[in-house]
UniProtKB/TrEMBL annotation, chain A:
This is Aminomethyltransferase. It comes from Cryobacterium ruanii. It is an enzyme of class 2 (transferase). Residues 305-384 form the Aminomethyltransferase C-terminal domain. Keywords: Aminotransferase, Methyltransferase, Transferase.
TrEMBL record, chain B:
NCBIfam families: gcvH, PRK01202.1. Its cofactor is (R)-lipoate. InterPro entries: 2-oxoA_DH_lipoyl-BS, Biotin_lipoyl, GCV_H, GCV_H/Fam206, GCV_H_sub, Single_hybrid_motif. This is Glycine cleavage system H protein. GO terms for biological process: glycine decarboxylation via glycine cleavage system; protein lipoylation. Binds 1 lipoyl cofactor covalently.
Protein backbone atom coordinates (compact mmCIF):
# COMPACT_ATOMS: atom_id res chain seq x y z
CA UNK A 1 0.00 0.00 0.00
CA UNK A 2 1.23 3.44 -0.82
CA UNK A 3 1.08 6.23 1.68
CA UNK A 4 0.80 9.96 1.56
CA UNK A 5 3.76 12.11 2.50
CA UNK A 6 4.43 11.85 6.17
CA UNK A 7 2.67 14.32 8.42
CA UNK A 8 1.08 16.34 5.65
CA UNK A 9 -2.51 17.41 6.10
CA UNK A 10 -4.77 15.99 3.44
CA UNK A 11 -6.86 18.48 1.48
CA UNK A 12 -10.55 18.01 2.11
CA UNK A 13 -12.38 17.35 -1.17
CA UNK A 14 -14.56 20.12 -2.53
CA UNK A 15 -18.15 19.94 -1.32
CA UNK A 16 -20.56 18.16 -3.58
CA UNK A 17 -18.02 15.78 -5.09
CA UNK A 18 -19.30 12.24 -4.92
CA UNK A 19 -16.88 9.57 -3.83
CA UNK A 20 -17.14 5.94 -4.78
CA UNK A 21 -15.96 2.79 -3.07
CA UNK A 22 -13.55 0.51 -4.95
CA UNK A 23 -16.49 -1.95 -4.80
CA UNK A 24 -18.96 0.46 -6.40
CA UNK A 25 -19.39 -1.50 -9.61
CA UNK A 26 -20.04 -4.71 -7.65
CA UNK A 27 -22.84 -2.89 -5.79
CA UNK A 28 -24.33 -1.54 -9.01
CA UNK A 29 -24.22 -5.03 -10.52
CA UNK A 30 -25.97 -6.39 -7.42
CA UNK A 31 -28.79 -3.84 -7.80
CA UNK A 32 -28.01 -1.81 -4.68
CA UNK A 33 -29.81 1.37 -3.73
CA UNK A 34 -27.32 4.04 -2.80
CA UNK A 35 -27.22 6.73 -0.16
CA UNK A 36 -24.90 9.61 0.43
CA UNK A 37 -22.80 8.97 3.52
CA UNK A 38 -20.30 11.72 4.27
CA UNK A 39 -19.95 12.38 0.55
CA UNK A 40 -19.65 8.71 -0.33
CA UNK A 41 -22.18 6.91 -2.49
CA UNK A 42 -22.63 3.74 -0.43
CA UNK A 43 -25.17 0.90 -0.62
CA UNK A 44 -28.09 1.62 1.72
CA UNK A 45 -29.71 -1.72 0.87
CA UNK A 46 -29.55 -4.33 -1.85
CA UNK A 47 -33.12 -5.59 -1.69
CA UNK A 48 -34.67 -5.57 1.78
CA UNK A 49 -33.03 -3.92 4.79
CA UNK A 50 -35.07 -6.15 7.12
CA UNK A 51 -33.92 -9.32 5.37
CA UNK A 52 -30.34 -8.08 5.51
CA UNK A 53 -30.70 -7.33 9.22
CA UNK A 54 -32.10 -10.80 9.98
CA UNK A 55 -29.41 -12.46 7.87
CA UNK A 56 -26.69 -10.86 10.00
CA UNK A 57 -28.42 -11.98 13.20
CA UNK A 58 -29.00 -15.55 11.98
CA UNK A 59 -26.40 -16.34 9.30
CA UNK A 60 -24.10 -13.66 7.94
CA UNK A 61 -23.96 -10.37 6.06
CA UNK A 62 -21.28 -8.84 3.85
CA UNK A 63 -20.71 -5.09 4.22
CA UNK A 64 -18.56 -2.67 2.24
CA UNK A 65 -17.12 -0.16 4.71
CA UNK A 66 -14.47 1.26 2.43
CA UNK A 67 -15.61 4.78 3.27
CA UNK A 68 -14.13 4.42 6.76
CA UNK A 69 -10.87 6.29 7.42
CA UNK A 70 -7.61 4.44 8.08
CA UNK A 71 -4.85 6.45 9.74
CA UNK A 72 -1.48 4.85 10.38
CA UNK A 73 0.56 5.96 13.39
CA UNK A 74 4.13 4.79 13.00
CA UNK A 75 7.33 5.66 14.82
CA UNK A 76 9.34 5.23 18.02
CA UNK A 77 6.94 7.41 20.04
CA UNK A 78 3.73 5.91 18.62
CA UNK A 79 2.46 4.44 21.90
CA UNK A 80 3.20 7.46 24.10
CA UNK A 81 1.86 9.74 21.38
CA UNK A 82 -1.47 7.90 21.32
CA UNK A 83 -1.66 8.08 25.13
CA UNK A 84 -1.48 11.86 24.69
CA UNK A 85 -3.69 12.16 21.61
CA UNK A 86 -6.50 9.81 22.69
CA UNK A 87 -8.59 9.29 25.82
CA UNK A 88 -7.48 5.71 26.44
CA UNK A 89 -4.17 4.17 27.42
CA UNK A 90 -3.14 2.64 24.13
CA UNK A 91 0.45 2.02 25.22
CA UNK A 92 -0.64 -0.95 27.29
CA UNK A 93 -2.57 -2.84 24.65
CA UNK A 94 -0.86 -5.96 23.41
CA UNK A 95 0.48 -6.56 19.96
CA UNK A 96 -2.45 -7.54 17.67
CA UNK A 97 -5.00 -6.25 20.17
CA UNK A 98 -7.77 -3.76 19.32
CA UNK A 99 -9.22 -1.08 21.55
CA UNK A 100 -12.18 1.26 21.24
CA UNK A 101 -11.15 4.83 22.02
CA UNK A 102 -12.15 8.47 21.78
CA UNK A 103 -10.49 11.49 20.24
CA UNK A 104 -11.41 14.33 22.58
CA UNK A 105 -11.39 18.05 22.05
CA UNK A 106 -9.65 20.26 24.60
CA UNK A 107 -13.08 21.11 26.07
CA UNK A 108 -13.83 17.42 26.69
CA UNK A 109 -16.21 16.99 23.76
CA UNK A 110 -15.82 14.16 21.26
CA UNK A 111 -14.16 14.76 17.88
CA UNK A 112 -14.54 11.11 16.91
CA UNK A 113 -14.82 7.60 18.25
CA UNK A 114 -12.30 5.15 16.84
CA UNK A 115 -10.91 1.66 16.93
CA UNK A 116 -7.15 1.38 17.40
CA UNK A 117 -5.26 -1.76 16.36
CA UNK A 118 -1.70 -2.44 17.49
CA UNK A 119 0.19 -3.84 14.49
CA UNK A 120 3.68 -3.64 16.00
CA UNK A 121 5.41 -2.23 19.07
CA UNK A 122 5.63 1.14 17.36
CA UNK A 123 2.86 0.93 14.74
CA UNK A 124 -0.89 1.38 15.21
CA UNK A 125 -3.80 1.53 12.79
CA UNK A 126 -6.47 4.04 13.81
CA UNK A 127 -9.85 3.62 12.14
CA UNK A 128 -12.05 6.72 12.18
CA UNK A 129 -15.54 7.48 10.91
CA UNK A 130 -15.83 8.51 7.27
CA UNK A 131 -17.54 11.75 8.19
CA UNK A 132 -14.74 12.65 10.58
CA UNK A 133 -11.83 11.65 8.40
CA UNK A 134 -10.38 15.11 8.05
CA UNK A 135 -11.26 16.36 11.52
CA UNK A 136 -9.72 13.27 13.08
CA UNK A 137 -6.64 13.31 10.89
CA UNK A 138 -6.06 17.03 11.42
CA UNK A 139 -6.36 16.63 15.20
CA UNK A 140 -4.09 13.59 15.25
CA UNK A 141 -1.53 15.42 13.14
CA UNK A 142 -1.59 18.55 15.28
CA UNK A 143 -1.00 16.44 18.41
CA UNK A 144 2.05 14.74 16.89
CA UNK A 145 4.24 17.83 16.86
CA UNK A 146 6.32 16.96 19.92
CA UNK A 147 6.56 13.23 19.17
CA UNK A 148 8.81 11.18 16.93
CA UNK A 149 5.96 9.65 14.98
CA UNK A 150 4.50 9.72 11.49
CA UNK A 151 0.74 10.13 11.13
CA UNK A 152 -0.45 9.01 7.72
CA UNK A 153 -3.92 9.21 6.20
CA UNK A 154 -4.12 5.98 4.20
CA UNK A 155 -7.89 6.00 3.76
CA UNK A 156 -7.73 6.08 -0.01
CA UNK A 157 -5.41 3.09 -0.14
CA UNK A 158 -7.54 0.77 1.95
CA UNK A 159 -10.73 -1.07 1.28
CA UNK A 160 -12.63 -2.39 4.29
CA UNK A 161 -14.97 -5.36 4.03
CA UNK A 162 -16.89 -6.73 7.01
CA UNK A 163 -18.34 -10.24 7.36
CA UNK A 164 -20.71 -10.22 10.30
CA UNK A 165 -22.93 -12.85 11.82
CA UNK A 166 -22.76 -16.29 13.44
CA UNK A 167 -21.49 -17.91 10.22
CA UNK A 168 -18.71 -15.36 9.67
CA UNK A 169 -15.95 -17.62 10.95
CA UNK A 170 -16.97 -20.57 8.79
CA UNK A 171 -17.16 -18.30 5.75
CA UNK A 172 -13.74 -16.78 6.28
CA UNK A 173 -12.34 -20.25 6.85
CA UNK A 174 -13.64 -21.33 3.45
CA UNK A 175 -12.57 -18.21 1.54
CA UNK A 176 -10.17 -19.00 -1.28
CA UNK A 177 -6.98 -16.97 -1.43
CA UNK A 178 -6.78 -16.07 2.27
CA UNK A 179 -3.47 -17.49 3.50
CA UNK A 180 -0.56 -16.93 5.85
CA UNK A 181 -2.75 -15.83 8.76
CA UNK A 182 -0.72 -14.95 11.83
CA UNK A 183 -3.32 -16.42 14.14
CA UNK A 184 -5.79 -19.28 14.04
CA UNK A 185 -9.12 -17.52 13.59
CA UNK A 186 -10.88 -20.22 15.61
CA UNK A 187 -8.91 -19.20 18.67
CA UNK A 188 -8.67 -15.48 17.97
CA UNK A 189 -10.58 -13.51 20.60
CA UNK A 190 -12.97 -10.64 19.98
CA UNK A 191 -11.14 -7.30 19.55
CA UNK A 192 -7.99 -8.91 18.16
CA UNK A 193 -6.40 -8.54 14.75
CA UNK A 194 -3.94 -10.57 12.73
CA UNK A 195 -2.13 -10.20 9.45
CA UNK A 196 -2.14 -12.48 6.46
CA UNK A 197 -2.31 -12.52 2.68
CA UNK A 198 -5.01 -12.45 0.09
CA UNK A 199 -3.70 -13.82 -3.21
CA UNK A 200 -0.26 -12.66 -2.20
CA UNK A 201 -1.29 -9.15 -1.14
CA UNK A 202 -1.19 -7.89 2.47
CA UNK A 203 -4.38 -8.46 4.46
CA UNK A 204 -5.45 -7.55 7.97
CA UNK A 205 -8.19 -9.61 9.64
CA UNK A 206 -9.78 -8.09 12.74
CA UNK A 207 -12.40 -9.73 14.92
CA UNK A 208 -14.37 -6.53 15.36
CA UNK A 209 -17.64 -5.11 14.14
CA UNK A 210 -20.59 -2.82 14.61
CA UNK A 211 -23.51 -5.21 14.56
CA UNK A 212 -23.59 -6.95 17.94
CA UNK A 213 -22.68 -10.26 16.28
CA UNK A 214 -19.44 -12.14 15.97
CA UNK A 215 -17.63 -11.17 12.82
CA UNK A 216 -14.55 -9.96 11.07
CA UNK A 217 -13.36 -6.79 9.39
CA UNK A 218 -10.90 -7.20 6.55
CA UNK A 219 -8.50 -4.46 5.50
CA UNK A 220 -6.65 -4.68 2.22
CA UNK A 221 -5.46 -2.66 -0.75
CA UNK A 222 -8.33 -1.04 -2.62
CA UNK A 223 -7.38 -2.71 -5.91
CA UNK A 224 -7.79 -6.17 -4.33
CA UNK A 225 -11.23 -5.44 -2.89
CA UNK A 226 -13.36 -6.87 -5.70
CA UNK A 227 -11.49 -10.15 -5.76
CA UNK A 228 -11.91 -10.59 -2.01
CA UNK A 229 -15.57 -9.52 -2.15
CA UNK A 230 -16.36 -12.22 -4.70
CA UNK A 231 -14.23 -14.83 -2.91
CA UNK A 232 -16.18 -14.16 0.29
CA UNK A 233 -19.51 -14.35 -1.55
CA UNK A 234 -18.52 -17.71 -3.07
CA UNK A 235 -17.44 -19.06 0.31
CA UNK A 236 -20.66 -17.81 1.90
CA UNK A 237 -23.03 -19.11 -0.76
CA UNK A 238 -24.00 -22.16 1.31
CA UNK A 239 -23.72 -20.27 4.62
CA UNK A 240 -26.59 -17.88 4.06
CA UNK A 241 -24.30 -14.91 3.39
CA UNK A 242 -26.18 -11.91 1.96
CA UNK A 243 -25.05 -8.49 0.82
CA UNK A 244 -25.96 -5.99 3.54
CA UNK A 245 -26.26 -2.22 3.27
CA UNK A 246 -25.92 0.69 5.65
CA UNK A 247 -29.63 0.67 6.58
CA UNK A 248 -29.29 -2.75 8.22
CA UNK A 249 -25.96 -1.76 9.75
CA UNK A 250 -27.73 1.11 11.51
CA UNK A 251 -30.53 -1.00 12.99
CA UNK A 252 -28.03 -3.72 13.96
CA UNK A 253 -25.77 -1.30 15.85
CA UNK A 254 -28.78 0.38 17.48
CA UNK A 255 -30.04 -2.96 18.83
CA UNK A 256 -26.51 -3.60 20.10
CA UNK A 257 -26.55 -0.24 21.91
CA UNK A 258 -23.54 1.04 20.00
CA UNK A 259 -23.26 4.81 19.62
CA UNK A 260 -23.10 6.50 16.22
CA UNK A 261 -21.07 9.67 15.83
CA UNK A 262 -23.30 12.63 15.00
CA UNK A 263 -26.17 11.01 16.90
CA UNK A 264 -25.12 9.79 20.36
CA UNK A 265 -21.66 11.37 20.17
CA UNK A 266 -20.89 14.97 19.25
CA UNK A 267 -18.39 17.75 19.86
CA UNK A 268 -20.59 18.97 22.71
CA UNK A 269 -21.11 15.56 24.32
CA UNK A 270 -18.92 14.44 27.20
CA UNK A 271 -18.07 10.74 27.16
CA UNK A 272 -19.49 10.43 30.69
CA UNK A 273 -22.90 11.54 29.40
CA UNK A 274 -22.82 8.82 26.76
CA UNK A 275 -21.94 6.09 29.25
CA UNK A 276 -18.38 6.06 27.94
CA UNK A 277 -16.71 7.39 31.09
CA UNK A 278 -14.58 4.25 31.29
CA UNK A 279 -13.10 4.93 27.85
CA UNK A 280 -11.49 8.09 29.28
CA UNK A 281 -8.57 6.84 31.33
CA UNK A 282 -8.06 9.36 34.13
CA UNK A 283 -5.59 7.03 35.81
CA UNK A 284 -3.05 7.62 33.05
CA UNK A 285 0.01 9.42 34.47
CA UNK A 286 0.48 11.54 31.38
CA UNK A 287 -1.48 14.53 30.22
CA UNK A 288 -3.81 14.01 27.28
CA UNK A 289 -5.93 16.32 25.21
CA UNK A 290 -9.22 16.85 27.03
CA UNK A 291 -7.91 15.64 30.38
CA UNK A 292 -8.63 18.78 32.42
CA UNK A 293 -12.14 19.08 31.03
CA UNK A 294 -12.80 15.37 31.57
CA UNK A 295 -11.68 15.61 35.19
CA UNK A 296 -14.04 18.53 35.74
CA UNK A 297 -16.77 16.52 34.01
CA UNK A 298 -19.98 17.72 32.42
CA UNK A 299 -21.94 20.44 34.18
CA UNK A 300 -24.32 19.40 36.93
CA UNK A 301 -27.65 18.27 35.53
CA UNK A 302 -26.24 17.45 32.11
CA UNK A 303 -28.39 14.96 30.24
CA UNK A 304 -27.42 11.31 30.09
CA UNK A 305 -27.84 8.62 27.48
CA UNK A 306 -30.49 5.99 28.15
CA UNK A 307 -32.24 3.23 26.27
CA UNK A 308 -35.98 3.47 25.66
CA UNK A 309 -38.41 0.74 24.75
CA UNK A 310 -42.07 1.11 23.89
CA UNK A 311 -45.11 -0.94 22.99
CA UNK A 312 -46.77 -0.91 19.58
CA UNK A 313 -45.12 -0.26 16.26
CA UNK A 314 -44.66 3.52 16.12
CA UNK A 315 -41.00 4.23 16.76
CA UNK A 316 -39.59 7.44 18.11
CA UNK A 317 -36.83 8.62 15.84
CA UNK A 318 -33.79 10.87 15.98
CA UNK A 319 -34.62 14.42 17.19
CA UNK A 320 -38.03 13.52 18.62
CA UNK A 321 -38.57 15.20 22.00
CA UNK A 322 -38.98 13.35 25.32
CA UNK A 323 -41.39 14.62 27.98
CA UNK A 324 -41.75 13.54 31.60
CA UNK A 325 -45.53 13.64 31.44
CA UNK A 326 -48.42 13.99 29.02
CA UNK A 327 -48.81 17.68 29.82
CA UNK A 328 -45.23 18.84 30.51
CA UNK A 329 -44.55 21.94 28.45
CA UNK A 330 -40.78 21.82 28.09
CA UNK A 331 -39.02 18.72 26.79
CA UNK A 332 -36.83 16.73 29.19
CA UNK A 333 -34.80 14.97 26.56
CA UNK A 334 -34.36 14.05 22.95
CA UNK A 335 -33.99 10.83 20.97
CA UNK A 336 -30.69 10.45 19.11
CA UNK A 337 -31.44 7.15 17.31
CA UNK A 338 -34.64 5.16 17.13
CA UNK A 339 -36.35 2.47 15.09
CA UNK A 340 -38.80 -0.37 15.24
CA UNK A 341 -36.36 -3.11 16.25
CA UNK A 342 -36.35 -5.78 13.53
CA UNK A 343 -35.12 -8.44 15.97
CA UNK A 344 -37.26 -7.56 18.97
CA UNK A 345 -40.38 -6.37 17.15
CA UNK A 346 -40.97 -3.29 19.30
CA UNK A 347 -39.70 0.30 19.16
CA UNK A 348 -36.27 0.99 20.65
CA UNK A 349 -34.36 4.25 20.94
CA UNK A 350 -31.33 5.85 22.48
CA UNK A 351 -32.04 9.23 24.02
CA UNK A 352 -30.50 11.92 26.18
CA UNK A 353 -32.68 12.72 29.19
CA UNK A 354 -32.32 14.81 32.32
CA UNK A 355 -30.59 12.75 35.06
CA UNK A 356 -33.74 12.40 37.19
CA UNK A 357 -35.40 10.44 34.37
CA UNK A 358 -32.45 8.12 33.78
CA UNK A 359 -33.32 5.50 36.39
CA UNK A 360 -34.24 2.13 34.85
CA UNK A 361 -37.97 1.65 34.63
CA UNK A 362 -38.81 5.36 34.51
CA UNK A 363 -41.85 6.08 32.34
CA UNK A 364 -41.47 8.93 29.87
CA UNK A 365 -43.32 10.14 26.78
CA UNK A 366 -42.00 10.44 23.25
CA UNK A 367 -43.53 13.06 21.00
CA UNK A 368 -44.15 11.03 17.86
CA UNK A 369 -45.17 13.69 15.37
CA UNK A 370 -47.61 15.39 17.71
CA UNK A 371 -48.74 12.39 19.79
CA UNK A 372 -47.09 11.61 23.11
CA UNK A 373 -46.53 7.88 23.34
CA UNK A 374 -45.29 6.19 26.52
CA UNK A 375 -41.82 4.64 26.68
CA UNK A 376 -39.77 3.03 29.44
CA UNK A 377 -36.14 3.68 30.33
CA UNK A 378 -34.16 0.47 29.96
CA UNK A 379 -30.55 -0.64 30.06
CA UNK A 380 -28.35 -0.90 26.99
CA UNK A 381 -27.83 -2.91 24.87
CA UNK A 382 -31.31 -3.88 23.72
CA UNK A 383 -29.95 -7.03 22.14
CA UNK A 384 -27.05 -9.23 23.20
CA UNK A 385 -25.97 -12.29 21.29
CA UNK A 386 -25.81 -15.64 23.03
CA UNK A 387 -22.14 -16.60 23.25
CA UNK B 1 -51.19 -6.78 -12.70
CA UNK B 2 -52.19 -3.15 -12.61
CA UNK B 3 -51.52 -1.20 -15.79
CA UNK B 4 -49.59 1.67 -14.24
CA UNK B 5 -49.82 3.72 -17.45
CA UNK B 6 -53.56 4.23 -16.88
CA UNK B 7 -53.19 5.56 -13.33
CA UNK B 8 -53.05 9.17 -12.18
CA UNK B 9 -50.17 10.35 -10.01
CA UNK B 10 -49.20 13.08 -7.57
CA UNK B 11 -45.93 14.86 -6.94
CA UNK B 12 -46.01 13.21 -3.48
CA UNK B 13 -45.40 9.86 -5.21
CA UNK B 14 -48.91 8.51 -4.85
CA UNK B 15 -50.98 6.79 -7.48
CA UNK B 16 -54.70 7.26 -7.94
CA UNK B 17 -57.00 4.80 -9.69
CA UNK B 18 -60.25 6.48 -10.67
CA UNK B 19 -63.36 4.32 -11.02
CA UNK B 20 -66.50 6.45 -11.23
CA UNK B 21 -66.56 8.62 -8.13
CA UNK B 22 -64.13 6.41 -6.17
CA UNK B 23 -60.39 7.05 -6.07
CA UNK B 24 -58.16 4.23 -4.87
CA UNK B 25 -54.87 5.58 -3.52
CA UNK B 26 -51.48 4.01 -2.89
CA UNK B 27 -47.83 4.96 -3.02
CA UNK B 28 -45.74 4.29 -6.10
CA UNK B 29 -43.05 1.65 -6.44
CA UNK B 30 -40.55 4.50 -6.62
CA UNK B 31 -41.71 5.83 -3.22
CA UNK B 32 -41.73 2.35 -1.69
CA UNK B 33 -38.21 1.74 -2.93
CA UNK B 34 -37.03 5.06 -1.47
CA UNK B 35 -38.63 4.31 1.89
CA UNK B 36 -37.20 0.82 2.25
CA UNK B 37 -39.01 -1.94 4.10
CA UNK B 38 -42.35 -0.59 5.34
CA UNK B 39 -43.02 -1.72 8.91
CA UNK B 40 -46.00 0.38 9.97
CA UNK B 41 -48.93 2.00 8.19
CA UNK B 42 -51.47 4.33 9.76
CA UNK B 43 -54.57 5.14 7.73
CA UNK B 44 -57.52 7.49 8.27
CA UNK B 45 -60.80 6.12 9.60
CA UNK B 46 -63.48 4.95 7.23
CA UNK B 47 -66.13 7.66 7.00
CA UNK B 48 -63.77 10.52 7.75
CA UNK B 49 -63.76 13.56 5.53
CA UNK B 50 -60.39 14.43 4.09
CA UNK B 51 -59.09 17.52 2.33
CA UNK B 52 -56.88 17.23 -0.72
CA UNK B 53 -53.24 18.07 0.02
CA UNK B 54 -53.43 17.37 3.74
CA UNK B 55 -51.65 14.58 5.59
CA UNK B 56 -54.08 11.75 6.39
CA UNK B 57 -51.78 8.86 7.20
CA UNK B 58 -48.25 7.63 7.71
CA UNK B 59 -46.07 5.01 6.11
CA UNK B 60 -43.05 4.11 8.23
CA UNK B 61 -40.03 2.13 7.18
CA UNK B 62 -37.12 1.07 9.37
CA UNK B 63 -35.27 4.13 8.14
CA UNK B 64 -37.83 6.87 7.75
CA UNK B 65 -41.40 8.11 7.85
CA UNK B 66 -43.47 8.89 4.78
CA UNK B 67 -46.68 10.88 4.92
CA UNK B 68 -49.83 9.92 3.11
CA UNK B 69 -51.39 12.97 1.47
CA UNK B 70 -55.01 13.01 0.42
CA UNK B 71 -54.94 13.52 -3.36
CA UNK B 72 -58.59 14.63 -3.47
CA UNK B 73 -61.29 16.17 -1.28
CA UNK B 74 -63.74 13.52 -0.22
CA UNK B 75 -64.88 10.84 2.21
CA UNK B 76 -62.89 7.72 3.02
CA UNK B 77 -65.02 4.74 2.03
CA UNK B 78 -62.49 1.96 2.69
CA UNK B 79 -59.02 1.36 4.05
CA UNK B 80 -56.81 -1.62 3.38
CA UNK B 81 -56.81 -3.66 6.61
CA UNK B 82 -54.47 -6.19 5.05
CA UNK B 83 -51.76 -3.60 4.57
CA UNK B 84 -52.13 -2.48 8.20
CA UNK B 85 -51.69 -6.12 9.20
CA UNK B 86 -48.87 -6.78 6.70
CA UNK B 87 -47.17 -3.47 5.85
CA UNK B 88 -44.65 -5.28 3.63
CA UNK B 89 -47.40 -5.41 0.97
CA UNK B 90 -46.50 -1.78 0.22
CA UNK B 91 -43.09 -2.99 -0.95
CA UNK B 92 -44.08 -6.27 -2.57
CA UNK B 93 -47.11 -5.01 -4.49
CA UNK B 94 -47.38 -1.21 -4.27
CA UNK B 95 -49.82 -0.88 -7.19
CA UNK B 96 -51.99 -3.83 -6.17
CA UNK B 97 -52.38 -5.48 -2.76
CA UNK B 98 -50.48 -2.55 -1.22
CA UNK B 99 -53.27 -0.04 -1.94
CA UNK B 100 -54.05 2.19 1.06
CA UNK B 101 -57.41 3.98 0.93
CA UNK B 102 -60.49 4.49 -1.22
CA UNK B 103 -62.01 7.97 -1.32
CA UNK B 104 -65.38 9.05 -2.69
CA UNK B 105 -64.93 12.43 -4.37
CA UNK B 106 -67.06 14.94 -6.26
CA UNK B 107 -64.47 16.62 -8.44
CA UNK B 108 -61.13 15.29 -9.45
CA UNK B 109 -58.29 17.82 -9.24
CA UNK B 110 -55.61 18.00 -11.88
CA UNK B 111 -53.26 15.07 -11.33
CA UNK B 112 -50.12 13.93 -13.13
CA UNK B 113 -50.30 11.52 -16.03
CA UNK B 114 -48.08 8.45 -16.21
CA UNK B 115 -45.80 10.28 -18.64
CA UNK B 116 -45.57 13.34 -16.42
CA UNK B 117 -44.89 11.27 -13.34
CA UNK B 118 -42.27 9.19 -15.12
CA UNK B 119 -40.53 12.40 -16.10
CA UNK B 120 -40.70 13.61 -12.50
CA UNK B 121 -38.85 10.58 -11.19
CA UNK B 122 -36.47 10.63 -14.12
CA UNK B 123 -37.55 7.41 -15.78
Amino acid sequence: MTSADSNTPAAAPAAGIERFSPLHQAHVDAGASFTDFAGWQMPVRYSSDLAEHHAVRNQAGLFDLSHMAEILVDGPDAATYLDYALAGKLSVIELWQAKYSLLLAENGGIIDDLVVYRLDETRFLVVANAGNRFAAFDALLARAVDFDVAVLDQSDDYALIAVQGPNALAILDATAGVTDLGADLHFMKYYRITDGSFRGHPLLVARTGYTGEDGFELYLAADQARELWHALLSAGADQGLVLAGLASRDTLRLEAGMPLYGHELTLTTFPAQAGLGKVVNLKKENDFVGRAASEAGPEAGASVLVGLIAAGKRAGRAEYAIFRSLDAEAPDGVITSGALSPTLGYPIAMAYVTPDLARLGTEVYVDVRGTRLPATVTSLPFYKRVE
Amino acid sequence: MTDTSTLHYTAEHEWVLVEGSIATVGITAYAAEKLGDVVFVELPEVGSTIAGGTVVGEIESTKSVGELFAPVNGTVTATNDQVVESPELVNSDPFGAGWLIKVEFETLPTLLTFTEYSALIGE
